[in-house]
Amino acid sequence: MSQARVSYKPSDEVDFVIVGSGASGGILAKELSTNGFRVVVLEQGPYLTEKDFTHDEVKVFQEHLLTNNPKQQPHTFRATPREKAKQQYSVMYGRCVGGSSAHFTANFWRLHEIDFIEHSKIGDIPGTTFTDWPIRYADLEPYYTKVEWEVGVSGLAGASPFDPWRSKPYPMPPLPVKSSGVIFERAAKKLGYHPFPAPMAILSQPRAGRSACANCGFCLGFGCEVGAKSSSLASMIPVAEKTGRCEIRPNSYVHKIEIDEKGRATGAVYFDAKGVVHMQKAKAVVLAANGAETPRLLLLSHSKQFPNGLANSSGMVGKNLMVNTGAIGFGVYDEPLNDYKGFAVSRIFHDFYEADTQKLGFYGGGGVDARYDMTPINFVMQGLPPETPKWGSSFKKTLHNNFTRTMQIYFHGTSVPVEANGFSLDDEVKDAWGLPALRFTYRDHDNDLKFMAWMTERVMELFDASGARTTWHVPVAPQQFAVHLLGTCRMGNDSKNSVINPDHRTHDVKNLFLCDGSSLVTSGRGQPTMTIEALAFRASDRITALAKSGEISG
Amino acid sequence: MTNVATIHTVTYTSETMDPACTPRREFLLQLAGTAGAALIAAQWPAVTAAAQHAHEAKSSPQTYKFEVLTPEQAREVEAIAARIIPTDELPGATEAGVVYFIDYALRTFARDARESYGPGLAQINELTAQTFPGVAKFSAATPEQQDKILEMTLGSSEAGNSRHRQRAITGDFPETIWFHVVSGFLVAPEGGGNRDYAGWKVIGRDPAHTFSSPFGFYDKDYPGWQPAGSEMGKK
Description:
The structure holds 2 protein chains of 2 kinds. In chain A, helix 1 runs parallel beside helix 13 (529-548), helix 4 crosses helix 13 and helix 5 crosses helix 12 (446-466). By secondary structure, chain A is α/β, with parallel strands linked by helices. Helix content of chain A is 25%, strand content 17%. By secondary structure, chain B is mainly α. Helix content of chain B is 46%, strand content 0%. Chain B contains 8 helices and no strands. Chain B has helices at 22-34, 37-58, 71-84, 98-105, 114-131, 143-154, 173-186, 198-203. Chain B is elongated and about 70 Å long. The interface between A and B is large, with 79 and 68 residues.
């Protein structure tokens, strides 16, 4: 079989240029090229493969091997628009072929029917732009199934009484249970909950030429050395490249979408690895650059025709950011769990998928997992009881005792959309290419802070029921660090308050599509990647249909 | 400026800073394309042993040349590291070769901290001299005296009192060197520290590259998943 990769010249007008090769970009590339289109994917980061991945925590976390490097691409943070933003490492995303899917934890939860219509049930939440989706669970269900079968998800259908309906079971059984999963399952059942095997985008069996998980233990944050983690890199990009129609072009930092006098996108302008500027011509442009970089790119692409940024007639580009709420507790047990082995999560429950808003006086919902995502250095930085000394014999004894005996319980939940929360261009700070830095504005809505305090209580109840010897939790405080970048170019039918329509087409530019975390209307329950991928499969179908009927170029 | 220094007999060369496990990965890649997980799992112990052998062969004893730290600075760094993670029945920072990792770090990921080491170490030596007249530097102090200096800079070493830190010196050099010591103690050896898995011996992390279930005490006798409420009435 020929492995020769196709290569286009920037001056070749391809059918689609896709910006970003992550969770959504990888799927769009695979689907559109499989459907016969000529595709160029421009990726900011390098093209790393299994042989480049490492267990070196310093390289991964300090040198940002797979993620945005704040030294190269500084960004600023402020809690509210009234404050002056200061430079602060506060946003992390994948910056390599595969994007964040190369390093994620791989919890793959579908949204439930309620997620799409929750505003109709709950009503307005003051201070938010909370609203329903323009599509429903039934629209997305076939594509969730596609994610499970094509990208590769392990799980047990029907195991949770709270699960939405599904058209097909999982393609492979769940991953094995871990000690954290057993402890959690017992505690949860004791409290009357319904724990079940976690659906994970990690192969429990060999599939499509990829290996099953070898349980190496360097999972969250790390690239998978055996292709078991179902990243776009492992699952989609190889299929796209094999079509002979898709070129993945790494180290290509897009900073402008070019628009002609008719208001149509003509291509993407980017810096190559040497800083030389090129423009890749294309009949249509798809941004899949994540919930921070997609709005930033639209704002950077302002012009006379689009003075407030491209596709921003609504003024909603970069707004309504949701980062998901969370509550994290730790427990130390008498016997070794050895939870450093394997993937992060083996058991979850969804009994709080819809918390009782009426009774609690605030809105929220989520899922709870037991996990251990502490690689050794991270464990010392984040996984020790708060009163642990930092040096000497007692410090060492704690390391010796706790590393194998600790687990976390993590409650993941909804965030409400607040218009002031989001991404914009910084007035002063520039990145290494001289472009305005990303400015991150975020303060959790009071509703979400109340919800996080309540989630934390539930986490600690679980630890109490679990027989842990020592427990503690992360303090509840406004979040200043985001990895889930959701809602910043939201989907909607009304061009006055949304950026894209249900086909992922921007309301303002006929041949410009956006599909990534920015498309989400609500935040889900804290595990957005599967929904981003289902949307990408669906968007690919919609875009293909539009292209084939001449509605993009016409 | 590159400083060339020698201390002790060491078993580290700059070569070992390169990922030592490339052959392992290449081998795995070949397997990954053609064989299933069972085969890989069966092969991994052998692969790991081969990788380990390669690693050890590369680490043959010879004199280490410091490139950033001066010999004097290296001696102080090693002395501080040895009190942060002391040696007892289990290895400590000294056995893990933390000082060599730090020299490597200061020319790679921690380049920005390079300038802070000279003044930071000088501050600690001054504090030592002020606190214990006649003792010119940290490395010349007794272990008890050294612990007193660490207590004055990193807080108490006793459980429950660790948050009460006296700020005996300005700046955050104590935190910087602490982070580097911990990193050098626990990083996967391909990252240039944790020599002979000394750090992982302390925390109990098996250096193997692959594991299979059961992983720990609590999942050993797991009977298999049952829906909540279904246990009763079943065997």
